[in-house]
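This follows on from our talk about sequence and fold. Please put the record directly below this note.
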Amino acid sequence: MICIVTGDIVGSRKIKDSWLLSLKTALKVTSGQHAKWEIFRGDSFQVEVEPENAIKVAAYLKACIRVNKPADVRMGIGIGGIKNKRKKLSESSGDAFINSGAAFDSLKQAKTNLAIKTDYPDFDEEINVVIKLSLIAMDSWGVVAAEMVKLALENENLLQSELAAISGRTQSSVSEALKRAHYTEIMEMDRLYRKKLNQTILK
């Protein structure tokens, strides 16, 4: 079982290229040492991540792009098997790739920026409802909220006072930004997703 995230940058032609460096850096961070990611057609990308990390990775990529306002990102998460593993992700095949493409293709019609598809329809239905609710918060992240979410996800073991020291902000402004971003609730969604994933798919 692997997870493929397929995405593109919303309105990339209208905005400066600062998002490109943010995207490349974010993809390097999320794919870890494996470096399994690709940017193609200028503003589209694919990255392979652990299935357990899918929601956290999506939130992280979103935060990294939202820092470059008004840029945003659309992503389809696909979980499944892999048939042909090639050096380039775009030349690999399997259910994870098919599901990721299908999830991504469904976004425009559903008028949403994030969706998941697996071979388990009940799981998909439940998690996609939770994702849609989370997007009410994530789609409205301003630059500061996105910066703080990015920093918090990069330093999950640090206290808010330590995040404040790194960011050069006061602890109260860090706390306020994370509250505005609904960071705690998004982490709760991540925990729920992991629990359901382990119960249904990875069991």
Remarks:
- The beta strands are 2-10, 37-40, 44-49, 72-80, 114-117.
- The chain has eight helices and five strands.
- The radius of gyration is 16 Å.
- Residues 118 and 151 are 30 Å apart (CA to CA).
